[in-house]
Amino acid sequence: MPSDASADADCRRDKPRRRVLLAGKIVQDNGLSPDCTIRNLTDSGAQIRVAPGQAIPDAFHLIEIRSGMAYRAEVAWRTPATAGLKLSGRLDLSLSGPATPIHLRKLWLGCAQRGVGVSEG
């Protein structure tokens, strides 16, 4: 998305997204979990960047590694290396309980224990 279009989209949002540089994981239903960089974030949306050549699926779970938050994500727009996401279903992976999907919690714990930082995507 060109920078002018990005600025226009920011003007149309209910809440401005805060710029961040956070490590993330794209968790697909097929078990694949490539790294991404979260570039901006609100409770209802995000922009991510992936490594060149890495495909971004239409829907997936996005894990923000530092906070341990996971979201159900749907792509709203995309370019070859970035995507704007609509987020829903926020889950706190630091809490263990029946509402927390165990596969997401295990993946997050593994990344947190290894000290996964920001990807260069």
Features:
121 residues; alpha+beta; Thrombin, subunit H; six-stranded antiparallel beta barrel; 2 helices; 19% helix; globular
Notes on the structure:
The chain has 121 residues and is an alpha+beta fold. The chain has helices at residues 3-12, 102-114; strands at 18-27, 35-41, 45-49, 59-64, 69-78, 82-92. Strands 1-2-3-6-5-4 form a six-stranded antiparallel barrel.
Distance from first to last alpha carbon: 16 Å
Oligomer kind: single chain
CATH topology: Thrombin, subunit H
How much beta, percentage-wise?
A: 35-45%
Q: What is the percent of helical residues?
A: 10-25%
Question: Could you spell the SSE succession in H and E letters?
Answer: HEEEEEEH
Total number of domains: 1
What's the arrangement of strands in the largest beta sheet? 1-2-3-6-5-4
Number of helices in the DSSP assignment:
2
Q: Give the class-level CATH name.
A: Mainly Beta
What Rg is obtained from the alpha carbons, in whole angstroms? 14 Å
Unreliable parts: 1-8
CATH architecture: Beta Barrel
